[in-house]
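We close this part of the discussion by returning to an individual protein. The encoding preserves chain order, so positions in sequence and tokens coincide. The sequence in question and its structure tokens are set out directly beneath this paragraph:

===
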Amino acid sequence: MNLLLTASSVFTLIALYFVVSMIRHARRRRPVRATRSLAGGTASAVAGGASIMLAFSYYGYGRLVDEQTIGRIGFTQSAPEQFVARLMLDDQQDRMFELLGNEWQMDARVVTWKPPATMLGLDPIFQLDRLSGRYSSLDDERSKVRSVHSLSEPIAMDVWRFARKYPKLMPGVDAHYGTATYLPMVHGAVFEVTMTRTGLIARPVNEEAEKAVGDWGQ
């Protein structure tokens, strides 16, 4: 984080230097030098903007150093194919969501780094994205009401969104979804959710969840 803030400050100062240089050369009617200063200022501004965006994303996302526990999710059935999901994330207040169907799925945004960004020594970062209900039957999935809930607040400068929209402008950023394998919803079932470098993993932690996974698909 400190490295990114320092880099953004340095690139901003360099960009300002080139802007002042461009103005000075333009006043002295030196178009070639003014153009060079403009090009240097543009490149520095882009690099500075990218550093600021990475810093904002590092603040809003979680660092993914190794497999780590995100929290737990438990289910209470309120009606046929209708459940109340209690999401218990570490260091956050529990949240309740209504999910329709007989299976649940959680998605996360994951950002990993490729050359040349790997030279910065950045850890992968992630952010939980959405929680949704689904139906095991394909016909039901197509015809019945779906339920999807957002799990994150928008970030003003989101490197994940920018890299997905403009991949050629972020050659060192790999932005993708990390999806937990969808699992059954059963009354009383509790699952533990962990995050790995390849995505989310959910594991049963009580008898109801273990039985639901064991009976799943039979």
User: Anything to note?
Assistant: The chain has a mean pLDDT of 79. The chain has two domains: 2-60, 64-215. The two ends are 49 Å apart (CA to CA).
